[in-house]
Design a protein that fits this description.
By secondary structure, the chain is of the alpha/beta class. 45% of the residues lie in helices and 11% in strands. It contains 11 helices and 5 strands. A 5-stranded parallel β-sheet has the order 3-2-1-4-5. Helix 11 links the parallel strand 4 and strand 5.
């Protein structure tokens, strides 16, 4: 870590713990058959879910698609959002404390594949508490739904480098998807493949 000046975190699966089966269960209970096959896993989304992740589909269009698939025009936004966000559990307290400490020594960013419903819910739930705000934890969040790109496309990493001006060789990137780590490594990042349950504090002396 002696040469590291910047730390970049993926969000889902690295900072926030995920319960993918719970969202699959709840969405299928709404009436969407085999929803789990559409998700594939939390690393890659295809079809309209992938488009939603890249901001090509709006939250209202996403909800309309769920109603269409369920054959239930009367499904409320609240019911759909509750089921869709069920996978988002919590950010462990030690990770929040760690982010605050890291900001004293490093530039800290988030670079995440996510959609607007998930990120709005997560940021509100996890980072706006105890008098803190998002900027206490991250200099900036780079989000696929705002950038029109998703990892592992190398272009999203190049956009991040261009906007921040950081050196990839002095940047630690942490992600739980092999292809994302490989893409970052190919551009010179010091990339680490996170294993669920791994203690992030081991990388830092804070």
């Amino acid at each position: 870590m002696k040469d590291i000046r910047t730390v970049v975190f993926d969000f889902g699966g690295v900072l926030i713990d995920l319960d993918m089966p719970e969202t699959i269960r709840q969405v299928e209970e709404l009436g969407v058959p085999a929803f789990g096959k559409m998700l594939v896993n939390h690393y890659v989304c295809y079809g309209f879910l992938g488009e939603f992740e890249k901001g090509e589909v709006s939250p209202d269009e996403f909800r309309s698609k769920i109603r269409e698939l369920a054959g239930k025009p009367s499904l409320t936004d609240e019911a759909i959002d509750k089921a869709w966000c069920a996978m988002l559990t919590h950010v462990p307290a030690y990770k929040l404390d760690l982010l605050l400490e890291l900001n004293k020594k490093y530039r800290v960013f988030m670079l995440s594949n996510t959609n607007k419903i998930h990120i709005d819910y997560s940021l509100r739930k996890c980072f706006y508490n105890d008098g803190h705000k998002l900027s206490d934890y991250f200099e900036k969040c780079f989000l696929s739904n705002e950038m029109g790109l998703s990892k592992p496309d190398p272009t999203i990493f190049k956009m991040f480098l261009r906007e921040t001006g950081v050196s990839p060789e002095q940047t630690l990137y942490i992600d739980d998807a092999v292809k994302n780590v490989e893409a970052a490594s190919s551009l010179g990042f010091k990339a680490h493949l996170y294993v669920p349950g791994e203690d992030l504090r081991k990388f830092f002396s804070v």
